[in-house]
Amino acid sequence: MARAAVVCGLGTHLPSRVVGNDHLARELDTSDEWIRSRTGIGQRHLADPGQATSDLAVEAGQRALKSASSGAGQDGADAVVLATTTPDHPCPATAPLVASRLGLGTVPAFDVAAVCTGFLYGLAAGAGLIATGTADSVLVVGAETYSSILDPADRSTRAIFGDGAGAVVLRAGEPDEPGALGPMVLGSDGTGSELIQVPSGGSRDPFRAENADRADPFFRMTGRQVFRNAVERMAEAVTEAAARAGWRPEGVDVLVAHQANVRIIQAVADQLGLPRERFPVHLDRVGNTSAASIPLALADAVTAGALRPGHKTALAAFGGGLTWGAVTMTWPQVAPA
Amino acid sequence: MSDTYERLVQLLVKNFGFDTDEVAREDTFSKLELDSLALVELTLAVQQEFKIKLTDDDLDANDTMEQAVKVIESKPVVA
C-alpha cells in the first residue's frame, strides 16, 4: 500500500495592516459598494514596506509546526514546499530561506509556481515526497505579498488581492485515516497564459534600459474570461476528485474553494448543485490571497466551527497558468495554532 | 409553444433577484443592468438549465431577451 500524506498541522499569518474598501475609494475610482457587489470583499491585509513573502511564510510555518507538534506529536518537518507568486527574489527560491529561518536545517526546500492553484500543487509535491520516501513529513506553505506586484493605479486588481500566508504539515500515514489526502486532480492550459500575467521582468521581456519606458512589471488579469474558466474548471475538478475518492459530489460536507471572488464560489456551488452554505467564505475579510487562500480559509472555517473533524472535505483552486486542481480528505482532528 | 423564454426569466429571478414582471421580451441585458460578470454567470446558468454549450459571446449585453431565446433554441442539447 502506498504511503498516504496526512494533514496533521495548520497555521496562518496575516500582516497587521488592514485596508478597507473605503480607504481604496479615497485613492481610486471605486467604492465600497462597487467592490462588495462585484467581489464580496470588504477589506484586505497588506504587508508593510520591507515585509517580504518569507517573513509571512515563516510566521505561518511556525504556527503550523506548533499545531502539528501539540496535536499529533509531529515535530519539525523533513522538507519545505513553498507555493508563491511573489518570491522574495526572482532567484533563488524562497523556500530554503524559510526552512533555515524555521530552524529546519538543511532539509530539501523548493518553491512551486502555480499562482492561485499553488497551494494544491504544493500539496501534490509534498504528497509525492512522502510517497517516494524522500520525506516522512513536509511543511507546505502558501505565502503571498501581492501588494508588491499590483499596479497602484489598477482598481480591479487592488480591490481584489491581499497579502497573507497559510501552511499545513503533512506526515506519512495510511490512506484510510482522517486527514489523508485523496487522489489529486490537477490540470493546466497554457493557451490561457496571457489571461493572468506579469508581462515583464521574465526572460520574454527582461528589464533593460532600452525597454524601461514600456515594460510592465505589474500583475494583470482579464476578469471575465478568468471568471468562466475558474467556475467550470473547479466544478469539473471537484467532480473528478470526488469520483476518484469514491464519493458522490453531493456527499461533500464542506468545500473550501480558492477565495478569488464570492460570485465565483457561488457559481461553483450552483454548477455542482450543492448548497452555497457548504462553501466557507473568508475573502470578505482578507481578499484574494492567491496561494495562501486555501489554508487561510481552512483555518477560518475550523475556528468558526464550520469545518469539523469527520467532515467530508474538498479543496478546489484555479489560477494563472492557467492551472486548477482539487483534492478530497476527511477533515482530521487538527486545529490552527 | 416553447417555454424557453419563461425558463430564462426564471433564471434571472433566481440568480439576480428580479421579479417576473420586471423583465420583458424586448429588454436588453444592459437595460436590465446585467454587468459583464453577470452575463458570464447567466451563461453558466443557461448552460446548466438547458443542457447546452454557449460561447463567451453568445449572450451579448445588447441582446434582447427575445434574441437570447433564439440563441438558446439554436443550440443542440448536449448530454
UniProtKB/TrEMBL annotation, chain B:
InterPro entries: ACP-like_sf (IPR036736), PP-bd_ACP (IPR009081). Pfam families: PP-binding. Residues 2-76 form the Carrier domain. Transmembrane segments: none annotated. It comes from the Bacteria. This is Acyl carrier protein.
